[in-house]
Design goal:
Blueprint (H helix, E strand, L loop, with lengths): L17 H15 L15 H11 L11 E6 L2 H22 L2 H7 L10 H4 L2 E7 L2 E3 L5 E3 L3 H19 L2 E5 L6 H5 L7 E9 L17 H4 L4
Antiparallel strand pairs: 1-2, 2-6, 3-4, 5-6
Helix pairs in contact: 2-6
Length: about 220
């Protein structure tokens, strides 16, 4: 691989005045402020082409040394979704039966969650996000990746935003442990499951926990110096 540095012109940015910046920033906030983690999905299909465009958006995320250490395993097969649900619920039952600890389980009561995860079969798409500690370079040789968790977290955030902007609902599902995803989806053992993203349209009459609407104010999440 040629490692020589080469610069290209920056594109995609146009000079705008401060008022326009504020309008755009406020619009982005107003859009994302409506995003909710959903557990009641419709079985209404979502075209693969929509998922593909959102994945391309996720792939633009920054990453350590631009190695892009992620893989998105997209599942629409009813049989695979059933297998994932069965394996996830087995881990969830152990969690809710005590492995999660008293404090964690008490905090989850505000969200109304339990070990039953029917949405894993109902939603049209599951996207298992895998982190790659190493991946092939342009020549096919293995190379170490850097800031893997940070990079994959950024890409997952980009993906959630893209799906929300398209009009789809999501849920970040993290049964622990998640190694069963490697087996079910036939991913290399070297890859680490990062999150299982549930994607689709909300079910008719879907609700969300009131507690989930509580977001910290600006002065609790930011400081200016």
């Amino acid at each position: 691989m040629d490692s020589a540095y080469e610069a290209v012109p920056l594109t995609g940015y146009e000079p705008v005045d401060d008022e326009t910046l504020l309008v755009r920033a406020a619009a982005a906030y107003q859009s994302l402020a409506t995003r909710r983690s959903l557990r009641a999905f419709s079985d209404r299909p979502v075209p693969r082409a929509v998922i593909e465009q959102c994945l391309l958006a996720a792939g633009t995320a920054p990453s350590g040394a631009n190695h892009q250490p992620w893989h998105f395993a997209c599942v629409s097969s009813p049989e695979l979704k059933r297998q994932i649900r069965e394996a996830a619920e087995a881990e969830e039952r152990a969690f809710y039966e005590g492995r999660g600890g008293e404090r964690w389980l008490r905090d989850l009561e505000k969200l109304g969650t339990d070990a039953d995860k029917p949405f894993l079969e109902t939603a049209p798409w599951l996207i298992a996000v895998f982190a790659q500690p190493q991946s092939p370079d342009e020549a096919g040789d293995p190379r170490k990746n850097y800031y893997v968790k940070e990079s994959v977290g950024l890409a997952t955030g980009f993906l959630i935003q893209a799906l929300h902007s398209a009009g789809l609902a999501t849920l970040t599902h993290t049964p622990n442990p998640m190694k069963f995803l490697n087996q079910v989806l036939e991913r290399p053992s070297s890859e680490r499951p990062f999150v299982l993203l549930v994607v689709g349209h909300p079910a008719e009459g879907a609700t969300v926990p009131r507690y989930a609407l509580n977001k910290k104010p600006l002065d609790a999440i930011a400081s200016f110096q």
